Structures are given as C-alpha cells and as structure tokens.
C-alpha cells in the first residue's frame, strides 16, 4: 500500500481495514477520531450541502448502502484491535446508518462513554419537515486501561461565565454547538470536520505525543489538528485523488501550530482574593455599583460584573458594599 511519512506521521493511500491489519500493531493507538463514509446516495452526498461543485474534491469513495452493515463491522473490529486498553474512539455519524454503527460497536468489547449530539449550522433546507442540523458522535472506550480525560484542559472547574454558570460543566455537556467552517474558494473534502470540534475531542482525550488515528482521512482534518496539537498522527484514505491533494497540504503543517491558540484554563479563584482593599477600590466599588443599578442591572448581575472587574469573589463584594453602607438592591441616592 502506498504511504507518505511526514515528520514521523504516516498516512496510507488504501482501504483502512486491510491497511490497519497490515500496518498497525494491536493496542498501539491512544485515540481514534473518525468520520466514515455515510452510505447514503452514493456520490451525490454533497448535493445535500448546497456547495459550489468546483471546490468539492472529487474522488470521495462511498460505500453502497447494502454493504454498510458488514463494512461497519469490519472496520470497527480493526479499530477495537488497534486501540490500547483505555484508549478512546469518537465516531461521527449521520442518522441514516447510525444503527449499523451502534450494532457493530455492540459486537466488540468497546464501551459507550457518551452519545454526543453535534449541532451544526447550514442544515439541509426543508419546507415540509424539520431541518436536519445534527450529527451523532459516538464516544467509546476500550476497557482494560486508564482512559485519558483531561477534565480541566479547557476550563478550570471553578471558572464561571457571565451568568455565574460553570464554564467547565457547560463545555462538557453532551450537546455541542459548533459551526461548520466555510472556506470560500478552497478545495475541500465533502464533509470536512471543523477544527474546533477536533480540538475539543483531542484536548480532552489525549496528551501530547499520543498517537491519534483516523481510519477515513478525507480532508486530513483530524491529522492536521492532531499534529497542530503536538500529537502523532496516522491514518488511511482510499481515494488516490483526495490523498494526493491533501497530503500536499499536510506537508506545510507545522507541529504544534495550534497550541498558541488554546485558551489557558483559569483556576476560578478571583485574582485579588485576600488582598487588602484600598480606598480607591472602595470608591470604585460604590460608584460602579450604584451606576450599574441605576442603569437597570439587577443586584446579582451588578455584583457579578464587579467581581470580574475587581477580581474579587461575590461574598467579598457583598461584604464590602455593606461596610460602605450600600444596601443590597439600593438605587442611586439610597446608599447612605
Ligand atoms: C466522511 S469522509 C471523511 C471526512 C474527514 N473526516 C474530513 O474532515 O475531511 C470519508 C472518507 O473516507 C474515504 N473512504 C471510503 N472508504 C474507505 C476505506 N475503505 N478506507 C479508507 N478510506 C475510505 C472516502 O473517500 C472519504 O474521503
């Protein structure tokens, strides 16, 4: 099978089932992220997405719907074999053939962790039914080892949003609102997965230097993001046309190029917690609080705003307001 090696990452132009069997040892992969062909409408799949034909890469290889069940069983068995005990797999699937994938997963030792719904924009327009705008992401693990789940890789557990809700909790809910990428004028595989979606899965479920495999490379988006996050990448693409075009793009991908774009998770601790209040802090507190209340903010929101602005916790703000003689819920002029 033809292959290309780029900075130690290896990509094969061929069928992932025979390719994995020949080239990937048992238990050697830390994470699989993959988006198999959908088995719907053959090569007309892209018409669903209302795209400019000239920019959709030809040569995308579909699987006939009648073969989809057997095909799913075969590649998922290979995925099971190559994953290390404790390794994770994310499979992106539409709903039409989802039952085949769920059935195949049940035939393996792989265990469900989450069934995620990815809600995307640009759903297929309909006029006599609801608009379809989601995919399923099946997140499974291989039992027998410790699964990587980097709980605070994106948000500290104490970090709060503007509504005082936990950012970490929200990021880990199993419905993900992530937009597709629109890249006008660029050649792309039908159905390229957005970087943001891939970054999220890779951050939570792997560490630097881990091996990330994509059985169906398509636009090589999984490989590109994995390399961008300093992971090692491996994978298969059966179409020679897609493979040649995308491998050329991958040669320009700098390892770690995405690391500087990642958010640094906070501790959730207010930065000025425990620090003595100055006279200037107290004056700012009172004037900002009365100003916010006068402009119509609720007491709760005003306190949250001041907490962020002054780097103090909610209780510290409330206590100091009381000490300054400002009654909770007070309007301007009421505070003395
Ligand atoms: C849905 S696309 C993957 C899209 C990819 N995740 C991306 O973001 O660009 C599925 C890809 O699998 C390829 N494919 C189909 N059968 C295959 C097989 N048996 N082995 C490897 N690749 C295959 C198709 O040619 C297609 O490019």
TrEMBL record:
Gene3D superfamilies: Vaccinia Virus protein VP39 (3.40.50.150). Signal peptide: none annotated. Its EC number is 2.1.1.113. It is an enzyme of class 2 (transferase). SUPFAM superfamilies: S-adenosyl-L-methionine-dependent methyltransferases. InterPro entries: DNA_methylase_N4/N6, DNA_methylase_N6_adenine_CS, RM_Methyltransferase, SAM-dependent_MTases_sf. The keyword Zinc does not apply. Keywords: Methyltransferase, Restriction system, S-adenosyl-L-methionine, Transferase. It catalyses: a 2'-deoxycytidine in DNA + S-adenosyl-L-methionine = an N(4)-methyl-2'-deoxycytidine in DNA + S-adenosyl-L-homocysteine + H(+). Residues 29-244 form the DNA methylase N-4/N-6 domain. Belongs to the N(4)/N(6)-methyltransferase family. This is Type II methyltransferase. It comes from Methanoculleus nereidis.
């Amino acid at each position: 099978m033809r292959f290309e090696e780029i900075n130690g990452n290896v990509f094969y132009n061929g069928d992932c089932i025979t390719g994995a069997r020949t080239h990937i040892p048992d238990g050697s992969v830390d994470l699989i992220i993959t988006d198999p062909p959908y088995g719907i409408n053959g090569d007309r799949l892209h018409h669903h997405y209302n795209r400019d034909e000239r920019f959709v890469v030809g040569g995308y290889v579909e699987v006939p719907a009648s073969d989809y069940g057997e095909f799913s069983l075969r590649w998922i068995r290979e995925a099971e074999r190559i994953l290390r005990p404790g390794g994770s797999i994310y499979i992106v699937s539409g709903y039409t053939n989802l039952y085949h994938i769920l059935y195949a997963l049940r035939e393996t030792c792989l265990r469900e962790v989450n069934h995620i719904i990815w809600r995307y924009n640009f759903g297929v327009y309909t006029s006599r039914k609801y608009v379809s705008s989601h995919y399923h992401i099946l997140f499974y693990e291989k039992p027998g080892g410790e699964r990587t789940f980097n709980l605070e890789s994106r948000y500290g557990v104490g970090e709060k949003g503007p509504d005082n809700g936990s950012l970490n909790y929200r990021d880990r809910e199993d419905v993900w609102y992530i937009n597709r990428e629109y890249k006008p004028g660029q050649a792309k595989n039908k159905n390229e997965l957005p970087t943001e979606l891939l970054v999220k899965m890779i951050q939570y479920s792997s560490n630097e230097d881990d091996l990330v495999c994509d059985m169906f490379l398509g636009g090589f988006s999984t490989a590109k993001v994995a390399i961008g996050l300093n992971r090692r990448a491996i994978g298969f693409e059966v179409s020679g046309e897609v493979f040649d075009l995308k491998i050329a793009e991958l040669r320009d991908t700098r390892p770690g190029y995405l690391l500087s774009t990642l958010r640094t998770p906070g501790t959730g601790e207010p930065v000025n917690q425990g620090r003595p209040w100055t006279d200037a802090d107290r004056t700012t507190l009172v004037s900002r609080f009365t100003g916010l209340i006068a402009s119509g903010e609720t007491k709760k929101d005003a306190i949250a705003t001041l907490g962020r602005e002054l780097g103090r916790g909610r209780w510290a703000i409330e206590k100091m307001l009381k000490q300054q003689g400002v009654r909770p819920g007070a309007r301007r002029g009421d505070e003395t």
